[in-house]
């Protein structure tokens, strides 16, 4: 197996779901001709400026993140805005992790994702290649939804 390529994605101004699906494809290796389901052929991805990714509509107020301590009554719930203030990296991590396989292969792929709050990251030695997404991932929607 060849060495993994490293990519760096600047999340500033990108929409959370669209960016996450593109990153999940890179982690899985779907962009490679030698892609095999269940085989680790994907690349490593570094996400910077995680606090500057955006969500549309009312998701900033309405979207909830839940975690459980494992103890009775241990469910904690917080909104997107609260988690954005506290740990913005976790929002991006949870979005991408949900798009990976829910098994040991997905857990292994998740290890190849590195998410950072600011524009600095400690992976300069891997010489990550800057990655730009095109299409609806980086541009605003051009269609206006009509109400009936």
UniProtKB/TrEMBL annotation:
InterPro entries per UniProt: Ribosomal_uL13, Ribosomal_uL13_bac-type, Ribosomal_uL13_CS, Ribosomal_uL13_sf
Top-rank lineage group of the source organism: Eukaryota
GO cellular component, one term: cytosolic large ribosomal subunit
The keyword Ribonucleoprotein belongs to this UniProt entry's keyword annotation: yes
GO biological process: negative regulation of translation; translation
Keyword annotations: Ribonucleoprotein, Ribosomal protein
Pfam families in the record: Ribosomal_L13
GO function term, MF aspect, one: mRNA binding
Family of the protein in this entry: Belongs to the universal ribosomal protein uL13 family.
Name listed for the protein in its UniProt record: Large ribosomal subunit protein uL13c
Organism of derivation: Seriola lalandi dorsalis
């Amino acid at each position: 197996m060849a060495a993994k390529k490293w990519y760096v994605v600047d999340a500033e101004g990108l929409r959370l779901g669209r960016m996450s699906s593109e990153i999940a494809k890179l982690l899985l290796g779907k962009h490679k001709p030698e892609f095999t389901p269940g085989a680790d052929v994907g690349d490593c991805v570094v996400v910077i400026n995680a606090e500057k990714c955006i969500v549309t509509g009312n998701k900033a107020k309405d979207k909830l993140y839940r975690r459980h301590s494992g103890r009775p009554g241990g469910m904690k719930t917080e909104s997107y805005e609260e988690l954005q203030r506290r740990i913005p990296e976790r929002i991006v991590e949870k979005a991408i992790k949900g798009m990976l396989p829910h098994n040991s292969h997905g857990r292994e792929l998740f290890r190849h994702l590195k998410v950072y709050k600011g524009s600095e990251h400690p992976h300069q030695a891997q010489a990550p290649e800057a990655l730009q997404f095109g299409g609806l991932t980086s541009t605003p929607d051009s269609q206006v939804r009509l109400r009936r």
